[in-house]
UniProtKB/TrEMBL annotation:
<keyword id="KW-0547">Nucleotide-binding</keyword>
<keyword id="KW-0067">ATP-binding</keyword>
<feature type="domain" description="ABC transporter">
    <location>
        <begin position="6"/>
        <end position="231"/>
    </location>
</feature>
<dbReference type="InterPro" id="IPR003439">
    <property type="entry name" value="ABC_transporter-like_ATP-bd"/>
</dbReference>
<dbReference type="GO" id="GO:0005524">
    <property type="term" value="F:ATP binding"/>
</dbReference>
<keyword id="KW-0813">Transport</keyword>
<protein>
    <submittedName>
        <fullName>ABC-2 type transport system ATP-binding protein</fullName>
    </submittedName>
</protein>
<dbReference type="InterPro" id="IPR003593">
    <property type="entry name" value="AAA+_ATPase"/>
</dbReference>
<dbReference type="InterPro" id="IPR051782">
    <property type="entry name" value="ABC_Transporter_VariousFunc"/>
</dbReference>
<dbReference type="GO" id="GO:0016887">
    <property type="term" value="F:ATP hydrolysis activity"/>
</dbReference>
<dbReference type="Pfam" id="PF00005">
    <property type="entry name" value="ABC_tran"/>
</dbReference>
<dbReference type="InterPro" id="IPR027417">
    <property type="entry name" value="P-loop_NTPase"/>
</dbReference>
Length: 298
């Protein structure tokens, strides 16, 4: 479990002059469920496609499970990738999808695949084109997991699903993870979903990684500090200011205490929840200042 699931070093992808991912440096430990969050066009799909080996970096490097993505068939078999619209073949039945998966993947786990299809309640004789969005997503999840990969990558797996189907999919995903011991990376716009299932977070905005880490560590190191105006100008070493808001009398900061030390000496200090933390980084990246902290993307 020591080899990082993803290690990126100054990873950059440009389309012509247009940067899709800039200078991303990441070290994601194995065994995590990683949430990749960011607004439209942030570079999430680009990062996931680089990890799956579907596209190549313009510069920098990425290693997945200790090797270059898609280096050979053995490496391909270690990674399951489900693209944005959970693609399935409309004309093939559920059973035909399973047979196809078996033919294409040497490590295919037939009992596992059949058990999951039964558990989800999918009719093996039904054509995939007739399944609901949630059922298609469940089928795609089953196909990717029955490969028995070491890493499962999902690009916005629940974007098209209603709240109930979303919850069912994510519940299913968590059961898979516990059952087959796999690392997972999924992108999502929904911080509440990430909060429910993920234990590691990467925030991407404006083509750059804003912050990354285990969610428990990140939430333990981000604080809202309130003090009289003028008293919060000097901060201890290792403290980054993510957002600043002033009124006539007081200043509110959102800070990242990189060494984890709670900056109580500065002023009235309280933890920042995950959603506020994510929004603060997104606003900073867009240069729109501090978010109103009641703001919600739910
Ligand atoms: N094949 C391509 N050719 C040109 N530009 C591209 C291509 N793919 C992505 N881009 C651009 O790169 C940037 C990052 O796109 P990407 O799809 O990675 O973002 P995203 O975070 O996944 O967005 P969304 O949440 O909308 O899916 C965007 O500005 C996009 O327009």
């Amino acid at each position: 479990m020591d080899t990082p699931v993803i290690r990126a070093d100054a990873l950059t992808k440009r389309y012509g002059p247009h940067p899709a991912l800039t200078d991303a440096t990441l070290d994601i430990p194995a065994g995590r469920i990683v949430g990749l969050v960011g607004p439209n066009g942030a570079g999430k799909s680009t990062l996931l496609a680089l990890a799956a080996g579907l596209i190549r970096p313009t510069s920098g490097t990425i290693d997945v499970l200790g090797r270059r993505p898609a280096a050979d068939t053995a490496q391909l078999a270690r990674v399951g990738f489900v693209a944005q619209d959970t693609p399935v073949y409309a004309q093939l039945t559920v059973a035909e999808h399973l047979r196809l998966g078996e033919r294409l993947n040497p490590a295919w786990d037939r009992p596992f695949a059949h058990a999951r299809i039964k558990q989800i309640g999918l009719d093996p004789a039904k054509k995939a084109g007739r399944l609901s969005g949630g059922q298609k997503a469940q089928l795609a999840l089953t196909l990717a997991a029955a490969k028995r990969p070491e890493l499962l990558i999902f690009d916005e797996p629940v974007a098209a699903l209603d709240p109930l189907a979303r919850r069912a999919f994510l519940q299913n995903l968590m059961e898979f993870v516990a059952e087959i011991d796999v690392s997972v990376i999924l992108s999502s716009h929904l911080i509440s979903d990430v909060e429910r299932v993920c234990d590691h977070l990467v925030i991407l905005a404006e083509s750059r990684v804003q912050v990354a880490g285990d969610i428990d560590d990140l939430t333990a190191a981000h604080f809202r500090v309130v003090g009289p105006r003028g008293t919060l100008d000097t901060l201890p070493a290792g403290t980054d200011v993510i957002a600043t808001e002033h009124t006539d009398r007081q200043t509110t900061l959102i800070v990242h205490a990189r060494n984890g030390t709670r900056p109580d000496t500065l002023g009235q200090t309280e933890p920042v929840g995950l959603e506020d933390m994510v929004l603060t980084y997104l606003h900073r990246a867009q240069g729109t200042g501090a978010p109103t902290l009641q703001e919600s993307t739910r």
